[in-house]
């Protein structure tokens, strides 16, 4: 199961079940988390509310909405708890998102006590990075797999933020499990190759179960 968190400043669009295999759709749903459940080769998506946090600035020395970030992370952890109660083991859940959603996914995965399968972090950054240790984190996600993707022409979250985030992540978790991919000519958006990379990542971490 993949929980995808969307960025806060994109517009709202209609969301519906996707029944075509081997495709991943990231509709822009303000303030929603998108659950992609793979059943019989199909991606079935549903949505649940989660809290956003304020973005005060995107420079390395900008103030951050610490209270909002932590509250949003707790809401995502509660969503994971609910899926576990529904019968999905936490180690069969991939947390991910785009922009602000990707930032929240990284922060949540690194602070939760729920063992996750992995994280997809798209065009984003690690919030509250100064709050993390200089060395490896403790807890159950020390060896979590992370796929981080970024466009080299991103004007909103510059590639530098992605590079710095990848460097930091490799000090917090097993560096062999951190993959940082860049896409030539891609802005604050997505591309077909990125979607293919995400699909391969999900397929590898969440093989079919009987």
Automatic annotation (TrEMBL):
- Reaction equations catalysed: a 1-(9Z-octadecenoyl)-2-acyl-sn-glycero-3-phosphocholine + H2O = a 2-acyl-sn-glycero-3-phosphocholine + (9Z)-octadecenoate + H(+); 1-hexadecanoyl-sn-glycero-3-phosphocholine + H2O = sn-glycerol 3-phosphocholine + hexadecanoate + H(+); S-hexadecanoyl-L-cysteinyl-[protein] + H2O = L-cysteinyl-[protein] + hexadecanoate + H(+)
Is Endoplasmic reticulum among this UniProt entry's keywords? Answer: yes
What is an annotated GO biological process for this record, any one? fatty acid metabolic process
Q: Which organism is it from?
A: Bos mutus (wild yak)
Which regions span the lipid bilayer?
none
Positions of the Phospholipase/carboxylesterase/thioesterase domain: 53-205
- Assembly: Homodimer.
Q: Which family does it belong to?
A: Belongs to the AB hydrolase superfamily. AB hydrolase 2 family.
As one GO molecular function, the record gives: carboxylic ester hydrolase activity
Task: Read off the InterPro entries from this record.
Answer: AB_hydrolase_fold (IPR029058), LYPA1-2/EST-like (IPR050565), PLipase/COase/thioEstase (IPR003140)
User: What protein am I looking at?
Assistant: Acyl-protein thioesterase 1
> Where does the record place it?
Cell membrane; Cytoplasm; Endoplasmic reticulum; Nucleus membrane
What keywords were assigned to this record? Answer: Acetylation, Cell membrane, Cytoplasm, Endoplasmic reticulum, Fatty acid metabolism, Hydrolase, Lipid metabolism, Membrane, Nucleus
Q: What is its EC number?
A: 3.1.2.22
Described purpose of this protein according to its UniProt entry: Acts as an acyl-protein thioesterase. Hydrolyzes fatty acids from S-acylated cysteine residues in proteins such as trimeric G alpha proteins or HRAS. Acts as a palmitoyl thioesterase that catalyzes depalmitoylation of proteins, such as ADRB2, KCNMA1 and SQSTM1. Acts as a negative regulator of autophagy by mediating palmitoylation of SQSTM1, decreasing affinity between SQSTM1 and ATG8 proteins and recruitment of ubiquitinated cargo proteins to autophagosomes. Acts as a lysophospholipase and hydrolyzes lysophosphatidylcholine (lyso-PC).
One GO cellular component term noted in the UniProt record for this chain? plasma membrane
Broad class of enzyme this protein falls into: hydrolase
> Coiled-coil regions in this chain?
none
Q: Specify where it is mainly localized.
A: membrane
């Amino acid at each position: 199961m993949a929980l995808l968190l969307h960025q806060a400043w994109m517009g709202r669009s209609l969301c519906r079940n996707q029944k075509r295999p081997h495709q991943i759709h990231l509709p822009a749903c303000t303030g929603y988390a998108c659950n992609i459940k793979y059943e019989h080769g199909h991606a079935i998506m549903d949505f649940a509310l989660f809290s956003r946090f304020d973005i005060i600035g995107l420079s390395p020395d900008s103030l951050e909405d610490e209270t909002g970030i932590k509250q949003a992370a707790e809401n995502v952890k509660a969503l994971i708890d609910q899926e576990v109660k529904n019968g999905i083991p936490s180690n069969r859940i991939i947390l991910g998102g785009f922009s602000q959603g990707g930032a929240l996914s990284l922060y949540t995965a690194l602070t939760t006590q729920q063992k996750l399968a992995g994280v997809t972090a798209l065009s984003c950054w690690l919030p509250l990075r100064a709050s993390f240790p200089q060395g490896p984190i403790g807890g159950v996600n020390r060896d979590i797999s992370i796929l981080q993707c970024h466009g080299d022409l991103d004007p909103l979250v510059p590639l530098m933020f992605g590079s710095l985030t990848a460097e930091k992540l490799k000090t917090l978790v097993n560096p062999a499990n951190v993959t940082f991919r860049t896409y030539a000519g891609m802005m604050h958006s997505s591309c077909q190759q990125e979607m293919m990379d995400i699909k391969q990542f999900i397929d590898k971490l969440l093989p079919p179960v009987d």
